[in-house]
Please model this.
Amino acid sequence: MDLRELYQEVILDHGKNPRNHRFPEPHNREGKGYNPLCGDRITLRLRLDGDRIADVGFLGQGCAISQASASTMTEAVKGKTMEEAADLFSKFHAMVMGEGDSDEDLDTLGKLAVFAGVREFPMRVKCATLGWHTLNHALGDDGTEARTE
Amino acid sequence: MSQASTAMTSDVRFDVKRARADFPAAHQEVHGKPLAYLDSAASTLKPQVVIDEVADAYSRDSANIHRAVHLLSQRATMRFEEAREKARAFLNARRAAEIIFTRGTTESVNLVAQSWARTFLHQGDEVVVTELEHHSNIVPWQIVCQQVGAELVVVPMTDRGEITVEAFASCLTPRTRLVAMAHVSNALGTVLPVEELTALAHERGAVVLLDGAQAVAHVPVDVQALDCDFYAFSAHKLYGPTGVGVLYGRERLLEGMPPYQGGGDMIRSVTFEETLYNDLPYKFEAGTPNIAGAIGLGAAIDYFTSWDLAAVHAHEEELLRYGTEALTSIDGLRLVGTAQDKVSVLSFVMDQAHPHDIGTIVDAEGVAIRTGHHCAQPVMAHYGIAATSRASIGIYNTTDDIDALVRALGRVKEMFG
Model:
């Protein structure tokens, strides 16, 4: 088992220094995420301009995988429409679950493709998707907390 | 380190090599590295004699108990009841009727909550637990407190993870009806001064339940000496099978309690007008139990007690001392839970990495530890953390396992330092 497949430099970097680690002001959506497995929590806020994510940021504590995933996600979805963000999540999810990652999908995912190694670590899929579930929750905004299980 | 162990000294040198040879799961490679199993506080490995006994129960005496007159059923019944007697002797209970087989510690606690507490607690009564409890010794009491309108009172712990007699005493009031506390903390390894605390609770007329899940494999247990009213433990933390455990209850209290579940085996006669309940302990054992599991528990008790237990405890104490020194010499590592009287558990956090990253990295090095909140979120909240990494010791562990952990933590620092 090669740990470097999981802990790629990009992940270690974003884990240590998460980007968009602040709340955008003003904001009009909020999502809260909780991983019952480890007790990690994050809060994500974003400013939706029409159906476009004008700005997004998050605060919270967690492992390198969950922090790096949330960090790279905020970079990836900023400026995207809700539909484009949802499409990224479904491709990201398929990749970390090992359910198909065509070259075309990996191209679309760009930097997010560094998380492909997570598929070899099923216990860590929830860490890698916490930020995404929280984003989903913020966009749906049904007032409940997003959970990884 | 542990009063319990030093109180019972032994001149016998514990032969850990021989013990380790008894556990087939200890001898395997994970991710190409020899396994260092340091997660016994979650579940112990099983010795071959226990595995064989469970297999034999199914291969030979595969029948229901307390029912048929045929030979297989007789033999299964006999072995099941022999296991009860072994559990009685292990806990030093007065009578086998005081030993109830359950699914484990959790069900044992729920049984007392729903049968004793729900019947005898009233509005305004108080149930005392401690801050270091496992969720399974918190939530059943929250549920019953809601049902009857009782209050849950929490004894605070010190920053070392200890429950002091003073803090405990100050939580007792004339309304205290029940005290439920761990004998040993699963998250921190703290041994509570349960004998003294039980005596204090009894002075107030309160009933005392001890959660012994984390204690039975690591400290001597004698329910008469402890003078507790209920004692709960699980087989799988005592080198036995999962899905089976024991509730010890004082006979006088058990007699006065209504059944926990209704069903077969717990009745003497049933009509649609009236049902007469069976005698102890069967009144609390509705339905076909985990027969092979109970027989396996009996084998686990036989196995465990075949060792000089004072020597086992001394061996574990020595390993804990070795591990404490090795871990505290790592830069950026902080032990969580530093009670004076402590067994088996080394819980820690590292500046460099989150417990889940630590867990994944040391797993790749063949080292199995638990990472997370250990089903004790109030303990985590006390320290202002979400999770810890926890290494825990069993009868088969050696200093090699601790060394493997230390090397693996070096890898963590390489990656995250």
Observations:
- The helical segments of chain A are 3-6, 9-16, 64-77, 82-96, 103-109, 125-140.
- The first strand of chain A starts at residue 29 and ends at 35.
- The two ends of chain A are 26 Å apart (CA to CA).
- Residues 88 and 109 of chain A are 7 Å apart (CA to CA).
